[in-house]
């Protein structure tokens, strides 16, 4: 890895960092990473209440200043190498302007505190969310942008489908652009520089209550790569999709479908990153591919990208 993102520190609406409810300090991680030449950044926000508090905080000049000061001090006191902003996600014109203002103030503060610190952001993959991002301005303030190219289908969708298809398929009711390639092309069309665009790789997937791919889906649960391997051991059938270049599983009774990524699909995505000259990848999340004492997905990413002349970023979340 080149960077590890330690997730998540939450925030209050007044800009105060919340390190009491769902946070564990991990100084040994930072020390060990630094000893191996790996940087560690702190991730702020995440899903759930993070989005609401980000919008409220960024809309208030005083709260925004408080947040910038607290985050800068937090990085300094805990020896982090910067921060990753995970506001999921700006949802209107006002949010768009406030997000840009927040990044501008953070960038200035970080440059003063330690010019070697990085500032990055994670953004959603689809145009309905991307339209509220001022790409032309924020691209100048961020070292990289991680696009969450996953969750294209899940328990919330009325039909089953792939969690993270590399390419679209004719059978997908959501359309051919509902895929990694579609999201990358969208953000490139918005002038996000190739070398700052990082593709999201999921080490997880979903088990869906659907008899076959793209059929009606009634529910679902998240599963890790390790969970998927266990299902194969229990008699589920692995099927490879030649259109989307990802696998899926079907249970013996043909009543459940599981969508996930395996070494082959991860390899294809890494090749896509290299072929298209992109900046690298982000991973959610480290440890989800731990199976039989090995980390096969992480191994593929490392061997594919950490080579001379390869992409510059490989960031992962613990």
Overview of this protein structure:
With 318 residues, the chain is an alpha/beta fold. The chain has one domain (3-202, 261-316): Glycosidases (TIM Barrel), CATH 3.20.20. The chain has ten helices and 14 strands. The strands form two sheets. An eight-stranded parallel beta barrel has the order 1-3-4-5-6-7-13-14, surrounded by seven helices. The termini are close together. The model has no long low-confidence stretch (mean pLDDT 94).
Name its key features.
318 residues; alpha/beta; TIM Barrel; eight-stranded parallel barrel; five-stranded antiparallel β-sheet; 10 helices; 34% helix; 24% strand
The tally of structural domains comes to 1
β-strand percent reads 15-25%
End-to-end gap:
12 Å
CATH topology: TIM Barrel
What would you give as the CATH superfamily? Glycosidases
Which stretches are low in confidence, meaning pLDDT under 50 for 5 or more residues running?
A: none
Strand and helix order? EEHEHHEHEHHEHEEEHEEEHEHE
Mass-distribution shape: globular
Kindly report the spatial arrangement of strands forming the biggest sheet: 1-3-4-5-6-7-13-14
Structural class: alpha/beta
